[in-house]
Each structure stands twice: as C-alpha cells, then as structure tokens.
Amino acid sequence: MSLQSDPSSYIQKLQQILNYENVEEGVKIEYIRKVLLEFDASHFHIAGSKLIGEIVAEHDRSSAPFHTTSIKTGLEAYDLAFGGLWPGEFVVIGGRPAMGKTLLLVNMAINIAANHEVLYYSLDLSNFMLSARIVASLTQLPTNYYMHGNMNESQLKQLELAKLDLSRLKLRVLDQQMQSMTAFKALCRQHVEEHKLKVIFVDYLQLLSSNRYKNNRELEISYISRELKNIARELNICVVATSQLSRSVEQRGGDKRPILSDLRESGAIEQDADKVLFIYRPEYYGFLQDEDGNSTLRQVQLIMCKNRSGNLDVVRLQLDEHYSKFEPYIEPKGGFTIDPDRFSDFDEAPF
Q1: CATH 3.90.1300.10 holds for 67-328
Q2: In whole angstroms, what separates CA 297 from the centre of its chain?
C-alpha cells in the first residue's frame, strides 16, 4: 500500500502499526520510523543530482590548496601510510583475542580526542576497566597498578599528571548496551549536533545487538554492519569498530596472518567496510624472528587488507614494555657480524 501525501494517511498507517498484535515493541518502532521517513521524503525537497564538474568546483571553492579533511590517529606510521581516518568512512579492525584491538582503539581515541570530539562505545569493558586502560596508556604504568591502587609516591604523581591530561580530552565513553540500532543512531546524531562529534569507536562489533533478526545471527550482524556504515555516511563522521576473527586463523598452518575471509559471522562486514585492518603479533604465535632474522619481540603489524581510498600495505608498531601503549617501530640497524671462528684470520699478514 503506497501512502499519499495527505498527512491523514500517514496517521492511519501509524495507528495500524500500534495495533499490531504479537509484534515486539522494538519492531513496531522500526516500522514507525520507516513511515516517518516516507512522510519526510514526500513533504520536503530532495536535492537532485549534480554534474561531476560542479561537485569538483564546489570542493575547490571550499578547500584551501592541499587542504585535507582527514583526522590523524596520532600513530605516525598509520597516518603516513593511509592518511588517517576520513569522515563518512566505516573502518573495521579485526584480530584474534589478545592481539591488542582494544589497546589500539584506546590509543587512537586518546590521540584524536586531544583535538576532536570522540565517542567510545565500549561493549567489552566497563567504564572503570576502560578508564584503567586509558590511565595506563597516559602514565605507561601497568593497568593493575591503577585498578588495585598499589602505587608508590612517584607513581601517584604520574597519576595526578595523567588526570590533568584526561581533563583536556574531548573523549566521551558509553558502556550501556543498546538493543536498538535506531536508538544508537539517534544518540550519535545528538552527539554530532551538540558536541560536533567526529569519530565513534565501537568495541566490539559482535557484541552489538538489535531487535531485528534475533533468531538469525548472520542476518543480525549484516544489519548492524550496514547501520554502522549508514551512521558514518549520513552523519559524515568516521566509525571505527573492532571485530573478532574466526578460529580458522588458529587452525591453519603457516604464520597465521589473518585474511578477509576470517571475519567472523558475516561477509557483510567485509562488503560494508571502507577499510579492513588486521592487527597481528608474530610473537604471540611463537615466531620470534622475521624473514630477515630480526626480533619480533613486542612487534605489532597493522595489515591493511581492504582500502577503498588508498593502498594496501603493512605498517609496524611496537608495544611498550607494560603493553599499555603503542610506540613507533624502530627498524633494526644494518651492519655485519664476524664469525668468532674467523677471528684468527686477522692475525695473518696481508702479503
């Protein structure tokens, strides 16, 4: 049944939805939202198409030469290789447990929040646990020092300095589970309007839920993935979500580097994402040297496997000794070594 432009027809349809029996309240709300969107489309002007030349000209007038709208993550290797994060894009960071996905998000959020409004939606950690990770990153003290309060005087001073830095961050944290993606989208829109939100971090995607498709997890994840993409595009912000990978990574041989098909539960995540980045630690799997014989101790590789706006590459970072912060990777210095068995060669006369 197509709705007419007469508002009374929309009211009638809304009343019908409210009277549905054996339909969950959340599903009714979704139906109502669609009717209201149809009403908006029929009563408000919708912009037409534009010639590509006009779009480029508009961009030239609104942008200074060489101006970029990307948001720097503060991880120099990533920013140099991939240009940071971009408004309107949906970025997925995948990895097996203990690879450092949450730590990577925390580091990015802290760096970006120094200049831009950031929302961190934590489904994996409570507010307190997340705050412990943030404090550890700022102080470079082990997380348990803050959680258990067993700090000496010097460490307490570090904590006080960290609190000053925390007070300057434009970082908002949400750890309340939402059953409706519509409600989450409304919250994001409110943050964009009131706080000029630029980036949303979601940790992690598989813990999101929806009133839809409760009996089909693959369809539910597909719907959630698409909605996160829609949030990024409609609100012109960047959405970064972590994703668990399937156990197939552990079961196959070789170096166990993740690939796109390892994304868990749904191929829709791979399709919807503008970027898919995997976090990989060779040391975790017992590979203590790379192909050149260099140590992989505390080395982290960020593997870009999908990038709609740039190249595919691998960048390296390094974990600090307390595993609370990512640091720049230091390339091993070139040089040569002498086999001890050949030291006697230097005793011989050259001629």
Answers
A1: no
A2: 25
